[in-house]
Amino acid sequence: CALCARLAPVSALTFLEQGGSRRSSVVNEVAGTPFVLYGVLTSNAEKYQAKLKAQLDTWAAVPVSEGRFFAVTGQGNNILQVADGLLAPRKCYDDYGGVTCKEEEVLETGYDRGAEWLVVLGEDHYVDVPALESYLASRGNSTEPLALGIVGCGKGSKGSKDGGCCREVVDSGGFCGGGGYMLNRATLAAVFADGIASVRSEYADQKGGYGDITTSCALLKRNIKLENIGGHHRLVGWSPLSEKAYRQIAKKERPMTYHYSNPPLMYGLHALLGHAPGADESELARQAFPTAAAVGTTRAIRCSTTNAGPRNSRCPRWPSCSRP
Hints:
The protein has 324 residues and is an alpha/beta fold.
């Protein structure tokens, strides 16, 4: 991506290298603005670190400068450092067996850092930060638990244990993590009401399971409703689309999150959404969309979030999808 390095005026990594503060005075400067914290699950493998760097160069640059971004990874070397406040200190296994450990650490870190809203993501998410934070602000400062995302994964699964699906998820459906999900302060407080040790044990019991489903079980067992806000393309949790579909959805419906975003696509979306002044949108689009099409579908996919049944005997990771 030849233009990627020139896209962000000051990337998050450059900001930190120049001695930038981890918490800007602009955070919560406007009365009623919630403290939105972004927590990313990632891995130390090179392909995942490339996506994480693209996040730091694009949508995460401002949250990083304001102390509102961190990542959780496994054991090994990472481009982020614990000393910067960008990397959670607890290390999990950096394989699929460590997913639920990383998931718990994201929630624990969010709670510990005082998040009023914790946004749980992967390193392959692009976030339209202004759109998301405007929406979260519109939800007010509720003292009741709120858990928002795409809901339906795991519903009807045959195995209550396999993949981390508990009876509550089998009956009513859990989060589909592809759209990301947002937990308010009251939700985090309810999760950790009995202490950190019990929650760590709860997630450790689901080693090898899905992070989003494990969190869904934790919430539902505490009688916290999962609210589906995935309609009208508010959260794009499916495979990469064609350039035409991205342009139609991004400009007309303004989604808050985009899943399966590789680095060229993140830079392209950043320009397309007007967050990269001076960037050559057409050149970025040329680099981004062929790459996106190569790793996913070139046709729009509509995902059911109300009748998401099992893909097989395992707990499904995504909702059932049908092509238009």
